[in-house]
Specification:
This protein has 255 residues and is of the alpha/beta class. It contains 9 helices and 9 strands. The longest helix is centred in the N-terminal third of the chain and has 18 residues. The structure holds adenosine-5-diphosphoribose.
C-alpha cells in the first residue's frame, strides 16, 4: 500500500467510485502495456523516438512496403509476441468477470486485454492479430509463416497485405467507432488508463463520457491532455501498481 497518505485517500476514493458505478467503462492506451514490456509511443524512450512514424502512414506504406514492413514486424510482432498481460489487464478482466466493468475501449492493438480475459473489447485502432489485403480485403492470421514473407502478399489476388490496425491516414473501423462512443455515453464512471490523449478521434471518447456526466478516473504517472480538463480524480501511478492497490481495496483477487 502507498506510504503517501494523500495517495491512499485517492485510491480509496477511486475504489469507492468503481464499487458504486452503475455502468463502468475503461479507456486504455499504450501506457497500460508498458509493464508488459511494450514501449509506449511517446515520452522517454517511446517508439516514436526510435522509429519514424512515417512508416505507419498508409500512403507511404503502400509506396514503400519494402521499407515499412521490416519496421512494422520489428515494432508490432517481435515485441508484441513476447508480451503477457500485466496486473492492470488482469484487474480489468476481473472487473468484467464480476459484472462491474461493462466494456473496455482500447487504442492498443496488442490483444493483451483479450489475452487477460476481457470479452467486451472495442479495438478503436484495430488489432495486430490479423492482416488484411489492400486489394481484395481478404483477412489472414498474423502467423509466423505469413510474416516470414519479406513483404506479405495475398495468396488469393497477389495484393499487398497490411496489419489490420489503422495506419495514420486511415479511418477508424465503423463498428469500433460506434460501439466506443455508445459505451462512452452510457457510462457513469470511466477509467482512463495510460494515454496521452494526444491522438484524435480517440481522445474524444473520455470527453464524450464526461459531457454525458461520467466521473473520469485517470491512471497515469504523468499529466496527460485529460488531466486538467477531463479528469476528476487522477492516480499518479503506474497502471499495474494502481490495479494492485484498487483490487486490494475492492477485495478482488488478480494474482
Ligand atoms: N502506467 C500507466 N501509464 C503509463 C505507464 C504505466 N506504467 N507508462 C507510461 N504511461 C503513460 C504515459 O505517461 C503516457 O501518457 O502512458 C501514456 C502513453 O502515451 P502514448 O505513447 O502517446 O500512447 P497513447 O496515448 O495510447 O497513443 C495513442 O497514438 O501512435 C498512436 O495509434 C497509436 O494508439 C496510439 C495512439
Amino acid at each position: 500500500m502507498s506510504s503517501n497518505p494523500n495517495l491512499a485517500e485517492l485510491i480509496a476514493e477511486a475504489a469507492e467510485k468503481i464499487k458504486l458505478a452503475r455502468h463502468l467503462v475503461a479507456f486504455t492506451g499504450a501506457g497500460i502495456s508498458v509493464e508488459s514490456g511494450i514501449p509506449s509511443f511517446r515520452g522517454e524512450d517511446g517508439l516514436w523516438s526510435r522509429y519514424n512514424p512515417k512508416t505507419l502512414e498508409i500512403d507511404y506504406f503502400i509506396q514503400h512496403p519494402e521499407i515499412c514492413w521490416p519496421v512494422v514486424k520489428e515494432i508490432f510482432y517481435t515485441h508484441f509476441n513476447k508480451a503477457l498481460p500485466n496486473a492492470a489487464h488482469r484487474f480489468l478482466a476481473r472487473l468484467e468477470d464480476v459484472g462491474m466493468l461493462k466494456a473496455t475501449i482500447t487504442q492498443n492493438i496488442d490483444s493483451l486485454h483479450q489475452q487477460a480475459g476481457n470479452r467486451i473489447v472495442h479495438c478503436f485502432h484495430g488489432n495486430s492479430a490479423r492482416l488484411t489485403c489492400l486489394k481484395c480485403g481478404n483477412y489472414y492470421p498474423a502467423s509466423n509463416d505469413i510474416l516470414a514473407q519479406v513483404i506479405p502478399h495475398c495468396t488469393h489476388c497477389g495484393g499487398l497485405l497490411k496489419p489490420d490496425f489503422i495506419f495514420f491516414g486511415e479511418a477508424i473501423p465503423d463498428d469500433a467507432y460506434r460501439a466506443s462512443f455508445d459505451a462512452a455515453r452510457q457510462c457513469d464512471v470511466m477509467l482512463v488508463i495510460g494515454t496521452t490523449g494526444e491522438v484524435y478521434p480517440a481522445a474524444l471518447i473520455p470527453q464524450e463520457a464526461k459531457a454525458n456526466g461520467a466521473f473520469i478516473i485517470e491512471i497515469n504517472p504523468l499529466q496527460s491532455h485529460f488531466s486538467h480538463q477531463t479528469t476528476l480524480l487522477q492516480l499518479p501511478m503506474k497502471a499495474g501498481e494502481a490495479a494492485q492497490a484498487l483490487a486490494a481495496r475492492l477485495k478482488l483477487k488478480i494474482d
